[in-house]
Amino acid sequence: MLRSNLDVDLLQAFAEVAHTRSFTQAAERLNRVQSAISGQIKRLEFITGARLFDRTRRSVKLTKEGEILLDYAQKILRLNDAALSDLGQTRPSEKVRLAVSDHSACFLPQALVRFAAAMPAVQLEIRCERSWDSLDALDAGDVDLAFVTQPCGRTDGEIVYREQLIWAAAENSEAPAVDPLPLAIFGPGCVYRDAALRALDTCGRAWRIAYNSPSRDGLLIAVRAGLAVTVATESTLESGLSAIDPHHALPALPEIELSLHRHSRGSSSATNRLWTIIQDTLGTA
Q1: What's the pLDDT score for residue 77?
Q2: Least CB-packed of 17, 58, 81, 163 within 10 Å?
Q3: CB-based burial of residue 26 (10 Å sphere; 0-12 exposed, 13-18 middle, 19+ buried)?
Q4: Cα 158 vs. chain centroid, distance in angstroms?
Q5: Other beta carbons within 10 Å of 81
Q6: Are 192 and 185 in contact (CB under 8 A)?
Q7: Tell me, what's the pLDDT at 151?
Q8: Quick one: pLDDT band at residue 130, thresholds 50, 70, 90?
């Protein structure tokens, strides 16, 4: 009896379908037509002698045999990438350029660990800047993905996470009781700023912009010193900062949305893998 071998390209197609739960999305992420992906899965099922997916018009689910193969497929793909990397065969195209905002960057560590395990040979280039600058870089082709805190009027991205905005200050700071309220906040156009000023104006609380910076770290210098109040989320509170006590009667703030965008020109398999991993990671946050 002839021994069958598992083809890496077939395993890659299988892993993409398993991750996206969609033949259509897997085809888009691998820059192939759907019929090609279906053919690869049929070929893999022939080689393994097992049905790998249960398919209906509305869903694609792994069978028990599919779940077993997926574990091996991920290991084989990682070993394949690692071997090519060690042999100096990493292709120039094996790079993903990611632009993030200060806030969205806080959610990346776990996603990056998963991406490194899945595609160890891929170089990841990260730039951190304002949301609109990240989206401008995406449109210019300077980055492959933009993971931003505000959509800036865009509808081409996918919202992957929502989080409540809160008022924050240094522990034991007197700033929340000062009138007018001293704010350390981003410049015009920032969704944090717009939400904070709108809420304060609505409730009639006087305010002033005491500190302004294009970066979150710049704002936190003044906040840590106890000189101002800022807007943050629970996930981005630094040590020494805390949510402002309700007795200060500051107005409620809305939720913030984190959205993921990629260029319409199409994406590499590595870019698509990072997209999926960020989606999955934020989905369990």
Answers
A1: 83
A2: 58
A3: buried
A4: 10
A5: 20
A6: yes
A7: 62
A8: confident
The two tokens of residue 28 are: 């888009």
d(C-alpha 258, C-alpha 195), whole Å: 15
Instruction: Summarize the confidence of residues 255-266 as an average pLDDT.
Output: 81
Q: Which two tokens stand for residue 186?
A: 């981003």
pLDDT for 273 equals 86
Domains of the chain and CATH, by start: 8-86 (1.10.10.10), 93-285 (3.40.190.290)
In b/e form, how buried is each residue of 254-268, taking b as 16+ CB within 10 angstroms? eebbbbbbbbeeebb
Chain center to CA of 261: 9
DSSP string, 169-213: EETT-SGGGSSSEEEEE--TT-HHHHHHHHHHHHHT--EEEEEE-
CA dihedral 262, 149, 211, 174 (to 10 degrees): -160
Rounded-to-integer distance, Cα 272 and Cα 31, Å: 10
Which pLDDT score, from 0 to 100, does residue 1 have? Answer: 42
Give 266's pLDDT tier (boundaries 50, 70, 90): low
Distance CA 169, CA 210 (A): 14
Sorted by sequence, the CB contacts under 8 Å of residue 65 that are 6+ apart come out as: 48, 50, 51, 52
Q: Which residues fall within 8 angstroms of residue 116, CB to CB, at 6 or more apart?
A: none
The region of weakest confidence among 101-110, 118-127, 177-186, 264-273 is 264-273
Distance CA 134, CA 263 (A): 12
Give the model's pLDDT for residue 18: 87
Let me know how long the chain is: 285
